[in-house]
Amino acid sequence: MREIVHIQGGQCGNQIGAKFWEVISDEHGVDPTGTYHGDSDLQLERINVYYNEATGGRYVPRAILMDLEPGTMDSVRAGPFGQLFRPDNFVFGQTGAGNNWAKGHYTEGAELIDSVLDVVRKESESCDCLQGFQITHSLGGGTGSGMGTLLISKIREEYPDRIMLTFSVCPSPKVSDTVVEPYNATLSVHQLVENADEVMVLDNEALYDI
């Protein structure tokens, strides 16, 4: 089976990732406890691409959740599918990146990156034939942009022959959190050009109009 390892980083990445798992679980007939309740064999045909089958027939997402502060993780855990994820796959710090790309890439993020890579290796080793990685993150904040691109470059070093796909939310002036978003995005795009195979660019303003 051609497995995909999913990684979500920062507040935006984790919020989009949580919604992704709600939708994909619904499509595969997996309930919030990881139990299959579908009505078609087709739902189980490719389920191993995104899920590990655990003991008792439970399906556990092949997902890694990272952030530099615990708040978003707590929200995901308290959400409708929060109990679906492996508890070990939540990796977070306590300081936050303060919307600062350099903090995510060089200081706070660099201190946490080895813990994230350990979980990435563990998930990758449990795959029969790893196809690649998909990452949801934003380019405007500190963690998703700075630490997200740091992780992408580290994964690229370790798995140079695997596909790297990112879903990158670009900042928009109309729905802006901070004035430094353009700087964070510019620094991130440079990294993505070097290390990603495919980048799905999402416009933050357009997301509000869905």
TrEMBL record:
Domain Tubulin/FtsZ GTPase residue range list: 47-210
Domain of life: Eukaryota
Pfam families, A to Z: Tubulin
GO CC terms in record: microtubule
UniProt GO MF annotations: GTP binding; GTPase activity; metal ion binding; structural constituent of cytoskeleton
One example of a Gene Ontology biological process annotation: microtubule-based process
Keyword terms of this UniProt record: GTP-binding, Metal-binding, Microtubule, Nucleotide-binding
Role according to the record: Tubulin is the major constituent of microtubules, a cylinder consisting of laterally associated linear protofilaments composed of alpha- and beta-tubulin heterodimers. Microtubules grow by the addition of GTP-tubulin dimers to the microtubule end, where a stabilizing cap forms. Below the cap, tubulin dimers are in GDP-bound state, owing to GTPase activity of alpha-tubulin.
Family membership noted in the UniProt record: Belongs to the tubulin family.
Subunit structure: Dimer of alpha and beta chains. A typical microtubule is a hollow water-filled tube with an outer diameter of 25 nm and an inner diameter of 15 nM. Alpha-beta heterodimers associate head-to-tail to form protofilaments running lengthwise along the microtubule wall with the beta-tubulin subunit facing the microtubule plus end conferring a structural polarity. Microtubules usually have 13 protofilaments but different protofilament numbers can be found in some organisms and specialized cells.
Protein name: Tubulin beta chain
